[in-house]
């Protein structure tokens, strides 16, 4: 097909952009106006800039590249801010994941001649992708717009829970087409689709399904799409067999495709002629069936009022974000509300309007339990989100935590292995990462009073997961008290993570009065001591014969080593259930604090981690870009030096976050990096989920009011907050001096005021007493 000179259409594109921005676009308002979805779209943040609603099933966003799995890391969300062109808009994306997949139902509006392959990014006109300028982009919570400069098309996107809405304004003098490509997927463009189907119904509904062999093998995703104007013609392609089906609308022509296209490389091109008004499209998806996708579209996709749906999306975000009112500078508010926005993207709804979802057994189930119907959620990056993202939801949205836990229980009951999710999305398991941290999410909610689910079924699911011997060599762990490195990779960190998870199981069992379960798992929770080496002062992996593996280099990090995405310097601090015991193991407060200072103050060449993509954001050995480090700055609280926690937190906040596309130093990991920011900005952090205590750090916003679900408000105030006053001088809770460095969950729920008075120099006496420290398994006195 002939290629038209794109430069002739750049003037048209700019004019269309300016006109729409000045007349047709709606301004964001409320808290949503402070959100900047560009944050994290550059570097290694792996966020997407497109349209979605809180915890929604649809993430409608532009894709700039979908490379093969060897090169997919930076495009885990499909979009990189530095890329010059867009290949289309797909409807499913992870936010901030360290692994890639999804990118389902790729749609591209085309003006003029149509090419059937995306082409090369550095060769304009080589395919259907189009160049664009960031100047033409509008990124808001629930809305995205861009001008495709090679076509002169203004594309606008918004979303509901199950439906993505498109509005395309085409040049009036060029034929308008919409291309649908079922071949691409984020992670592996070629060879990933096992099977797909594409058809056009008598009413013009385009629908189909595809099965992929990506991160979750055998994943099926179906869709249904409708347009606001009838097609004048259409062509369906099987690019693998070169079968082409042409259909035409109008009198005497059959609109129904009796012989739907089936194959592994399907595309559709839908033609609308020259248009004098915008073309709208609405797309629903389903993890279950084509019929369910159509039903989702029928119920959730009524009408054609794009602006009303955009208003609905903005309203949904304003409601979600209004749980916290924050005062501060524009940059502080943008950083805070964008973090809260990112923390409310996952897990995602993964259930159709009829209550059906697909489970880890690949079978269809109904979201119904003893409590009745519920919403089923998936996209569980457990190794990341149990630390702060899910505790944040327990604090702010316990109603959602209830739905999440019911979803977790259902997934365990549907699992062929009786396991809670490890890293699951759209109901399917990937077995990525380590530990069984779903137990921590459930226990954290339970001990903090979240109910509305079958607690006995939950505890049963937790115990079933923690005793499934075939997972991660739990069999040897239960027998030896540690995971042997000659049997299982990353055995050192797995032992530590299992021990913490066991402690979480114990806490829930204790709260339920299940004393036998409590005693068994409390004993297992001390297994971290079996990988502690007092000779070197590091956690180390052991062999089956009990000896530590040699040679040993605490700086060494590699996939499949003794530790998960970390080295000994980073993982040797991971005993969140027994920090006091770890302090004692190091030899007391002074030695513990000294070793922490060594961690932060070390001179480290980042090249040492060149083969481990996730280890980023270095401050010495501390790596804020990956989760094993996230609690470490707070550990000074447990050794009588909370002023050093305050000092380190300022280092981290100043160097690891900022407003801009590269404003996240590492993967947001489905909201964990952002949830860390929110808690830290408020002045406290859940070092030990499944405990009712939060370690106090220092605030980074002058005032925040939490609107709690019980109707109470909890206000955090920071007096004299600026760079010249980085330390906490004193703290009061409801007007009374607070001499301890922890806050209880119940104290927050009761409402009131936490007031910090900041000062220039550290207060070395505040919080130094042993009695002032957060709780731990071990009773420790220096």
From TrEMBL:
Residues 292-759 form the Glycosyl hydrolase family domain. The keyword Signal applies. Its EC number is 3.2.1.-. Residues 1-27 form the signal peptide. NCBIfam families: aman2_put (TIGR01180). Gene3D superfamilies: 2.70.98.10, alpha-1,2-mannosidase, alpha-1,2-mannosidases domains, GH92 mannosidase domain. The keyword Ribosomal protein does not apply. SUPFAM superfamilies: Six-hairpin glycosidases. GO terms for molecular function: hydrolase activity, acting on glycosyl bonds. This is GH92 family glycosyl hydrolase.
